[in-house]
Amino acid sequence: MTRTTPTTPAYRRLSVEERRGQLLEAALQLFAHRAPEEVSLDDVAEAAGVSRPLVYRYFPGGKQQLYEAALRSAAEELTLCFAEAQTGPLTLRLTRALDRYLAFVDGHDAGFSALLQGGSVVETSRTTATVDGIRRAAAEQILVHLAVERPGPRLRMMVRTWITAVEAASLIWLDEGKQPPVAELRDWLVDHFIALLTATAATDPQTAAAARAALALEAAEGPAGVLARRVIPVVETAAHLL
Q1: Which alpha helices (DSSP H) does 121-181 contain, by range?
Q2: Which CATH code of 3.40.630.30, 1.10.357.10, 3.30.457.10, 3.40.50.720 fits the domain covering 74-219?
Q3: Global confidence as pTM
């Protein structure tokens, strides 16, 4: 009778990029739910199943370097949230983009708050620039969807104001225990965009042209049509009072 000896899986040495990615993923998971100053290198090492010296080997700058690298990785993911095919009604594109963005916020609650609110002991000019880069990239993506080749200051201001509102609403949503339900928050933010767009179009010809082109693709039962039917009676009532 032949006895077989159990074999253990062969150890596979990770490449430099694989190991670095593993450490970044562990750090991101920790930073997602804890403020940066509450996460130590020992925490990262334990989460990744490695030693503290190994973390230092890949991030000789220590926690600051690791945090900045994790922040850049999160920034890339956030920026991609607003990347959307330029087909179909604008409100549906915004809906899909916001679904991805709010899913990120939901999954990185404490880290998202620390990232955008600042005040962290590991905050530097580089981390501030990274966060500002997210906002600018998101605004540029929205301008692409509006199909304006050379957007003027009023249109740019309107889009960047909306991005700021999305950011602020996300932070308030976290502070309010993630209420209202995320789908309601998303729909309200889409309504907010339509309202800002039409209000700016009233005094800016370039925005008016972009609004006409965008709204021409909307369905009567889509977000823009539903909002119009809700708002028109309010506006008509206000007009009678003037």
Answers
A1: 125-145, 153-175
A2: 1.10.357.10
A3: 0.77
E-assigned strands of the chain? none
Q: How far apart are CA 76 and CA 82, in angstroms?
A: 11
Q: Which two tokens stand for residue 167?
A: 């950011």
* Interval 151-178: pLDDT, tens: 999 999 999 999 999 989 998 998 899 9
- Taking the C-alpha atoms of residue 147 and residue 163, their distance in angstroms, rounded to an integer, is 17
Predicted confidence band at 121 (pLDDT cuts at 50, 70, 90)? very low
Taking every pair of C-alpha atoms in the chain, what is the biggest distance, in angstroms?
101
* CA 112 to chain CA mean position, Å: 9
> b/e string for 170-208 if b means 16 or more Cβ within 10 A?
beebbeeeeeeebeebbbebbbbbbebbbebbeebebbb
Query: What pLDDT digit, counting tens, does each position of 57-67 carry?
Result: 989 888 888 88
- Euclidean distance between CA atoms 201 and 82, whole angstroms: 23
CA gap 3, 207 in Å, rounded: 79
Tell me the two tokens of residue 32: 């997602």
Write down the number of H helices and E strands in the chain. Answer: 11, 0
Give the distance, in angstroms, between the CA of residue 210 and the centroid of all CA atoms in the same chain.
24
